[in-house]
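ARCHIVE CARD
CATEGORY: sequence design from structure
SOURCE FIELD: tokenized fold
FIELD CONTENT:
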């Protein structure tokens, strides 16, 4: 949880961090070689100076995951099954954008992206 005191700046998270930021998987490999797990967290690096940041990074489990090329890359959204798990179904001509979208503490929509190349 991020907090501020007195006249401190607005310490509301405005973006997500996605790990890994870039990845590659082989679409012809047997699982897990054709898969990459992406994880989303609040991006406290975008907070203004003066914000107090918690020592513990919380993995977000309330995000919606999408891939810019859903024909060649699928990504799961089911908790406990395939949440954030991508599968390379075919080779891609370049990096595919993986996007996680959710809400911050003020219920504003925030997002983060990563890239996945399937060879």
């Amino acid at each position: 949880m991020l907090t501020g005191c007195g006249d401190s700046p607005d310490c509301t998270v405005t973006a997500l961090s996605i790990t890994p930021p870039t990845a590659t998987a082989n679409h012809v490999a047997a699982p897990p070689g054709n898969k990459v797990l992406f994880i989303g967290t609040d991006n406290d690096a975008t907070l203004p100076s003066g914000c107090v940041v918690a020592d513990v990074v919380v993995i977000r489990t309330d995000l919606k995951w999408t891939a810019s090329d859903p024909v060649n890359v699928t990504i799961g959204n089911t908790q406990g099954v395939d949440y954030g798990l991508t599968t390379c179904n075919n080779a891609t001509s370049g990096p595919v954008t993986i996007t996680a979208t959710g809400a911050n503490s003020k219920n504003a929509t925030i997002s983060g992206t990563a890239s996945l190349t399937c060879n």
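CARD ANNOTATION: The longest strand covers residues 109-118. The mean pLDDT is 91.
SHELF: design records, drawer C
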